[in-house]
Amino acid sequence: MIASRKDTFAVARYLLLIAGVAITLFPLLWMAATSFKLPQNLYDLSLFPSPASWGSYSYIFDKAPFGTWISNTAIAAVATTASVLVFDTAVGYVLAQFSFPGRKLIFLFIISTLMVPTEMLIIPWYLLATKLALTDTFAGLLLPGLLTAFGIFLMRQFMESLPSELLDAARVDGLNEWSIFARIALPLMKPALATLAILSFISNWNQFIWPFIVLQTENRYTLPVGMVYFSSELKDNNGWIQIMAGATVSVIPLIAIFTIFQKKIIQGIALSGMK
Amino acid sequence: MIARTARTNAAAGWKTIPLRISYRTQRYLFIYLTLAVPLLYFFVTRLLPIIYSFYISFREWNILSPSKPYVGFANYSGLFTDEIFRKSIVNTFLFVAVGIPGQLAAGLAAALLLQSIPRFRGFFRTVYFIPYITSIVAVSWVFRWLLMPNGWVNSALLNLGLDAQLFLLSPRQALYVIALSMIWQSVGFQMLVFVTGLEGIPAMYYEAARIDGANAWRRFQHITLPLLNPVILFSAVIAGISYLQTFTQIVSMTGEGGPLNSTRTLVYHIYKLAFKNFEMGSASAATVILFIIIFAFTLVQIKALERKVEY
Predict the structure, then answer these.
(1) Are residues A89 and A193 in the same domain?
(2) CA of B144 vs chain A CAs: smallest distance (Å)
(3) pLDDT tens-digit profile of B267-292?
(4) Locate the ABC transmembrane type-1 domain: which residues (chain B) (predicted)?
């Protein structure tokens, strides 16, 4: 009797969780399904369009610059991530492993910038970019994200786990601080570096406000910016199939990256979100 | 560290003094050289812009004219006499008021369910997390398409014998529909934070309560909730700050913050003032207001957090 009640509860839990899966995935499945439809079947409610068509994809890559936007976004995300990896890691290492005058103050200063809304910085950034003639350029796009307080915080958390005896031993052996950082700390921190790289890539891929403001020429847009203009124009011509194809290509690379690296991503978010 | 250095230097005999100095110099050189560029960068891209925003908020400036006359608090009072600005503040707080409880309740429910099952945890966790990493712009357009007058949701409603709804075209529904899409996107993140929090609660508390005959609801009420309190408050701050900054969803789902300004948020208003009307002074004043709201929000929550953790 008790056992069967327990079983009922267990089944109910799984049913609830499965309902959650449906709510979570349905919008994304509907997005993908719509992108393969033919215009005359746009309002069909089937999740498996027949006949399926790649027409929308050839449209967004041939008639709209989605290819350019994807490569712009990828290049910007990779470049920013490279910069973040170098600088955030070095700063995180110094803050975690050394004591020196001003350490607390510097850490506090960096962390407190996390509280400042990006929107407050965007107007001055825009003015700065205008002054330096960087609006509508790749350099201007990268300008605000080259270092992140979040990354420094994350790397400091990771770097605290480095055994300081090991670093001291290297010092005794006569290695200078630069070699210790590059040849001992970094190799040990490979998993942390990977986590930072993935998180940075994801957030840069989806970055919207700053690119939306600093970029003005169509073929310099990043994917989210291009997507907004493209979709706003097409929605009036009932271009939902093409819009959903655009949304699908915006979302698929990240879902792929997430499924491959999910352990690292979840670990990084748990570590930075909890402390 | 110091002890170790001293020992090494002692072993080095007569070289002790010069070696220690050069070592210390090298060390500080490494520390401050590493920090120099990053600190300069944060100074130029974070600190100076904040100061500059405050400065411009007391000036009238249209970005083109060389002069920026001082106008005192005129930009601020101008904002508060502007009906649309006041509306955008109310809307922003509505997003916060709907978003925080929605996201936290859904995230907690998902986390508790996940904790209570023996198998497939990894699968559910992965699936629930997917929306969090998807592009807001892309997802917003998907929701727009689902919620169109003749979109999938309305077809489903009609098939169930219910009335079709205007959703994003209705001044009464649009804001809540957008908030729902934001909750949908953040449940996985929230769940993850709660799962980590739940894992930190010692299992023996539950065992002791079970021996004392406490049922599941009482265990939740008297163990889970109080011990999870710091995590709940922390999450409320993070979520609150993100709902205060609602912008991308507005540009993608209702374009201009319509219908009838019913979804115009503070950040959308700032964008409009700065980059459409080029009223840099008013726009900066609005960013200062946003900054103060976020700051107050954080302070209140930190205070609450300190108090709750004590017992």
Answers:
(1) yes
(2) 10
(3) 999 999 999 999 999 999 999 999 99
(4) 89-301
Distance in Å from the first CA to the final CA of chain A: 45
Amino acid type, B112 = L
Report how far residue A200's alpha carbon sits from residue A192's, in angstroms, rounded to the nearest whole number: 12
- B31, B38 Cβ separation under 8 angstroms: no
Tell me if B144 and A205 make a contact (CB, 8 A cut-off).
no
> Could you list the residue range(s) of the whole structural domain that residue A19 is in?
2-53
Alpha-carbon distance of A112 to A90, in angstroms, equals 19
From the list B275, B291, B267, the residue with the least C-alpha distance to B53 is B291
User: What's the total number of domains in chain A?
Assistant: 2
A270 chain-B contacts, CB cut-off 8 A? 192-193, 196
Q: Per residue of chain A (275 residues), give pLDDT as tens.
A: 455 777 788 899 999 999 999 999 999 999 999 999 998 888 888 888 888 899 999 999 999 999 999 999 999 999 999 999 999 999 999 999 999 999 999 999 998 888 888 889 999 999 999 999 999 999 999 999 999 999 999 899 889 989 889 999 998 888 889 999 999 999 999 888 998 999 899 999 999 999 999 999 999 999 999 999 999 999 887 899 999 999 999 999 999 999 998 888 887 777 765 43
CATH number for B75-309: choose from 1.20.1200.10, 1.10.3720.10, 1.20.1300.10, 1.25.40.10. Answer: 1.10.3720.10
* Nearest by CB: B142 against A31, A149, A269: A31
Look at chain A and count its residues: 275
Beta-carbon count within 10 A of A197 CB: 20
3-state secondary structure of B70: strand
Inter-axis angle of helices B48-56 and A118-131, nearest 10: 90
- Which of B34, B129, B155 shows the shortest C-beta gap to A94? B34
ipTM of this predicted complex? Answer: 0.91
Whether B139 contacts B153, CB under 8 Å: no
What does the CA dihedral A4, A6, A12, A14 come to, rounded to 10 degrees? -110
- Return the residue of A nearest to B292 by Cα: A116
| Residue of A219, A167, A209, A211 lying closest to A188 (CA atoms) | A167
> Which residues 120-179 on chain B approach chain A with CB closer than 8 angstroms?
120, 124-131, 133-139, 141-146, 150, 152, 155
- Residue A266 domain flag: no
What does pTM read for this prediction? 0.90
